[in-house]
Amino acid sequence: MPAKSSPREWIDRLVDAMHPPRAVYAHCDIPCGIYDPHEAQIAALTVLRMDQLIGELVPPAADAKPEERKETFAKLARYTAVKESHSERVKSEVRVIWGDFFTPEHAAKFPQVHEVVWKIMKQASKTRQGTNIADAQELLKLVQEFAEVFWQAKGAKTRRVPSMQKPGGELVVPA
Fold first, then answer.
1. For residues 127-146, b (16+ Cβ closer than 10 Å) or e, as one string?
2. Whole-model pTM?
3. What is the pLDDT of residue 35?
């Protein structure tokens, strides 16, 4: 037999039923002090790779079978969905680091950080709107600039290493 609910629990359930709580997403907001632009770089590389794959798709021939058409359109839909989610992931990762890690002292020492973040936000939106490989490459370049500023703010020198991923490119890592 279920346990009795208190009047408070009953009221809470009623309020939740009338006004369901909405999900919220955030970094830890403790602040934990654990930040790394690696995920943003990987997401930018993924955007680049999806644009490459979209560019490599061969349109179905005029006499293609319905299954062949479906296969091509399914690939295009998957590549596009992944590209868009990773463009948004770039924005999220950069926004968290910019908002939670960078202090006014960092901004004074690295005044370019605000402009780089603004450019990343705009460029990530642009990569969602199209499939131009040059746009994806520019997003990666901006995220790499952000990573360099981030590591400098932490007092680390940086170096670029090959990503070893299909789209090529490099990752900025602490030296």
1. bbeebebebbbbbbbbbbbb
2. 0.82
3. 94
